[in-house]
Amino acid sequence: MSNWLDQLPEAATAYLGGRKPDEVECIVADLAGVARGKAMPASKFATQARFYLPNSIFLQTITGDWADIPGQAFTEPDMILTPDFTTATAAPWTADLTLQVIHDISDQAGNPVSIAPRNVLKRVVGLYNARGWKPIVAPEMEFFLVARNTNPAEPVEAPIGRSGRKAAARQAYSMSAVDEYGPVIDDIYDFAEAQGLEIDGILQEGGAGQVELNLRHGDPVRLADEIFFFKRLIREAALRHDCYATFMAKPIEDEPGSAMHIHHSVVETVTGRNIFSEPDGGESPAFMHFIAGLQTHMPSVVALLAPYVNSYRRYVPDFAAPINLEWGRDNRTTGLRVPVAEPEARRVENRLAGMDCNPYLGIAASLACGYLGLIEGAQPKPEYKGDAYSGDESIPRNVSEALDLFGASPSMRSVLGEEFCAVYESVKTLEYKEFLQVISPWEREHLLLNV
């Protein structure tokens, strides 16, 4: 790999500015979306065409325990990691000159490892491509900046802004509110520019210290890579200013949760035509089929869109999060929203996914639902007009319910891959069992002496 520097994207080359990098981080995203891998001197990286990691990194729970692959012995075989140089980007917060490179993952026979989240998304995109379609996504990222929380037993609090006061809630779209933590935002912009990541916009959301970051539309795998990178850079920017950035779905009581809204459209690979629009500009049958797929199949993948016990605290009426899968035009109370757009930009927004989900798996799950809708040709329920919070709740309310639905959907398991689904279910079941062993402050306060 002596010529590997010649394969770098423009932004990475510009960051180096003719200098030789000191270190390279060889990384992949695990089931939780956490960066795993190896860091090594750039001189050593240049001499190796591949690297190795055990498959157990995809069997690890968020607490660090390990689940089993159903029906297989736990032997931890090595996977082969090959650098995808199109993803090479700076790590601008480091003291030395460091690059990050996402790696492709295959087994020792050269086959894509089916339980790797990035490969799951590639699999779903491949199903679209095989039919002459190209899925397009535009994600929105919501997150909180919070005061340092070094004691998990203490509640999370909003950070202190430049005014000396805690960040205020109920200040959506306020410019002065987002200016309260301007230095963090400035570093986010600077880090993103150094990494060649484009930000479409940043705004204050409804929660105290809650920020929304919008990304431009594009290829699903590339956008998932960018969210993976953004989560890390945003955390690093916050730490520089004595606060935390959290992507937890519901970190603060009585505040809104954080979503990863996903805007979807599909274009013909050859012509680039948006299949959601007719030549006269009207809505196409394919548009309705896609929405029907989301309505029909989304309950079976809520386990991927809301992966933790905390995720379900976000689904609360009137807190800017859906409680059902109704759809509506320009209606933010519905789980599926059709934004105002020109025919060539016609799209549907999935508002169900939480920001705590793995971006590869969240986007893959949403695309899988739309794909099944296109194949099945079904029709959605009638458009919901009015306040959808007054409707019935129609999504799973906890991890156990979501996993039951996930395990009972053969069509979804076929699209996402049977081995991946079995591993994901095993990991999440173990996480839930671990959670059930924890006794909460609420239980001690209200049950210890009263029941």
From TrEMBL:
Keyword annotations: Ligase, Magnesium
GO molecular function: glutamine synthetase activity
InterPro entries: Gln_synt_N_sf, Gln_synth/guanido_kin_cat_dom, Gln_synth_cat_dom, Gln_synth_gly_rich_site
Signal sequence region: none
Domain GS catalytic: from-to ranges: 117-451
Pfam families reported in the protein's UniProt record: Gln-synt_C
SUPFAM superfamilies to which the protein is assigned, alphabetical: Glutamine synthetase, N-terminal domain, Glutamine synthetase/guanido kinase
Biological process per Gene Ontology, one example term: polyamine catabolic process
Cofactor(s), names only, from the UniProt record: Mg(2+)
Family: Belongs to the glutamine synthetase family.
Protein name: Glutamine synthetase
